[in-house]
Design a protein that fits this description.
The chain is α/β, with parallel strands linked by helices. It is 40% helix and 12% strand. The chain has 18 helices and 16 strands. The strands form four sheets. It has a six-stranded parallel beta sheet. Strand 14, helix 17 and strand 15 form a beta-alpha-beta unit. Helix 1 crosses helix 12, helix 11 crosses helix 12 and helix 15 crosses helix 18. 57% of the residues are buried.
Amino acid sequence: MTTLASGTTASGPKDGLTRDALTVLQPGFTGTTAPDWLLRRLGEGLASVGVFGRNVASPEQLAALTAQLRAERDDVLVAIDEEAGDVTRLEVHTGSSFPGNHALGAVDDVELTREVALELGRRLAACGVNFDWAPAADVNSNPANPVIGVRSFGADPDLVARHTAAYVTGLQTAGVAACTKHFPGHGDTAVDSHLALPRVDVTADVLRARELAPFRAAIAAGSRAMMSAHILVPALDPARPATLSRTILTDLIRGELGYDGLIVTDGIEMQAISATYGIEHGSVLAIAAGADAICVGGGLSDEETVRRLRDALVAAVHSGELPEERLAEAADRVRSLARWTATTSAPDPNPQFTDIGLVAARRALDVTRVDSCTPLTAAPFVAAFTSESNIAVGTETPWGVTAELSRRLPGTETACFTGDHAGEEALAAAGDRRIVAVLRDEHRHPWMTTALDVLLKSRPDTVVVEMGVPQAPPRGALHIATHGAARVCGTAAAEVIAPR
């Protein structure tokens, strides 16, 4: 077994430079057990492993997986992209037991946010996960944002700041390191950085007053890690995206904001970086700029990727492109965080979980009724108006109200509709059954507005459930804004639609 990252393994000395290059990587893998190559790399200096939805079948399986990793290295950082709400890996196949940031921001009770994050942290810790790439501290100032939306606490910087701090405190009270993202703020973008390089074209003064406020709050709350954004912010650095910018990752966050914790990149294989710089050169530039760890594995999750990145970092040191002391400093920060997680209180071996997530989801509902609205007593037809999910959310996780409505009203049926004729197609499929229309972000999709126009003209008793950012005016006999599409948000909405 490898204990804290010394320069020696059970098999003998290992080149310190190569160990440091492995230490700064946070790779993913495929499968629900750890492959041999990953275990071998842990013995050679790898200090972090990323867990994604493809690696999770159940809490019990995840706990066995993390135990397998710790049998090789007892202080390994096991990271997960678990924001709760729409972005869940822990409950990828069922939907989250916790509402996401936007719902918590809608309630605006910082103690509730802390309690939700604490309970999420306890569940992660029970599975052996000790590092969460969350919370998202982005101020959702652009309603057309295609990738943040309900992942943000809201559009008000002060609200986002106080809830970011509460979330960090809750997670870390459970012994799970928080990784506040996406620095310096991904909220005012209209492009998904998974697909291209977004720009934030505002002045430095606006950035400091708006985007940076939640990150200052996270630093004050002791966030153990920060994640950089693959965004171009010309007011700060007109040449390089934040992940590759020394001006942003060293001068701003270290110098101006005084942050001394771990900085990890967003997924280095995302197109905003890989399409222009390549993952090898992008990783070298990121570490040189001030990042301490390279997240990779959401898309690329094989041993060859780890070898390529390790070798690129070593070669960059030999060529003089990357100072050896900068790589050593980055590796030391990873090891320091590993020591923190290894020395926090052990998770309760028999935890008793609470239903604080459902409590929060109920409180987050915004319900608008007309006088003629009557509760559903017979099985309805659920028309789900669906758009393409962004990559962070993924397509594996179910969403909507059908599951809970089916329990309450057996015989409930559903179908998905999209495009210019979605309304007519939904009417035809529903027949004479009461219609429940479920959608996300009507304000970003004109065809959804058209579909609702068609439904409500023919069927004014239609129930409308908006599970995205509720920017469009409420319509329908009953309109419910859930502020997110987590499983508990659907359950809370169904309780209003068909009360018992």
